[in-house]
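Quick illustration, no need to memorize.
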Amino acid sequence: MNSVIEDISKTFETKSINSISTYFETMTSYIIDLAYIGIASVKEYLALHVLLCLIPAFFLAGAIASLFSKESVLKFFGADAPKYVSYSVAAISGCLLAVCSCTVLPLFAGIYKRGAGIGPATTFLFSAPAINVLAIVYTAKILGYDLGVARAVIAILLSVFIGLVMSFLYERKDVEKKGIKTFGDEKHAHTVWLFLLLLAILVTPEILPTWNPMLFVEIPLILITVYVSLKWFDRDELESWMGETWFLVKQITPLLLIGVFFAGIIVELLPAEYVVKYVGGTTVTSYIIASVAAALMYFSTLTEVPIISALTILGMGKGPALSMLLAGPALSLPNMIVINRIMGFQKGMTYISLVVVVAAIAGYVFGMYIF
């Protein structure tokens, strides 16, 4: 009898050990698969963005932070600038850019560090990726003119509202920033021309997405920019520019890549069909879920349109679609990590919460009362 009990006990222990071993093997394999997905997302992000988008954006932000005088930034974005000027410029300047939620970060960091008021700076942070002309036209073409026009108009209004709320809550009393070199008024008009050249380098890949025409324009622009930079600016100015650029790269890039890694995993764990199941209706919950889901996903420039188009085909309503169009380009997981680093956790989370909430409300109003 005892031998039978011992045999049963040994069999049970063997099965338990085998079950635990199988469980750990399965979990290990699953975690490795997710890691590969995250790495693939980072590789795709680097291939698509670093060379053609982020590098020009970093150089442009570095130039703003070093070569432009603080006075010139404060003239349009400072706390003492007329609100109708600062918020108007911040809200519509995104029309000139073709940036995603990550590419806009160096530009935001540049003007914010240079002394811009938190209100106009966050207005720019929201509007720049949301209202570029290419995205609006593409939205109207693929998703319909109603969503295209609504996206443009509502994004501008929401950007100003978010900026005003952030200004009311957190406007900095100490406009002076420590450790920032200021040249006073621009030493020469060449700074503006350099800004325009760098801006052209940044937007050319979006205007000319195919390689041959893009390189035909991009390479001469880069060569001209290098030549005039060496000709127009002295050694100290160039060193200051490169120093500011490198500082922004070190501050932003590691967190950005970590965020992209986990964003890729989240997309894998949160398939489109699962999202559609909860955003196909017109309940308040569907708008909140659409806004939160879009904020966690990563959309490169213009890619939000075909993705949301696919979701609408699967049954997502136009109200939740607008919520995603507003929250998606403005936020992403890597974007949120870096925003908290630049502004601080409290201000960063306030901005993120504002974007998610107002995007959900705007989609609800559009879906229930306008469309």
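Residues 2-66 form the longest helix (65 residues).
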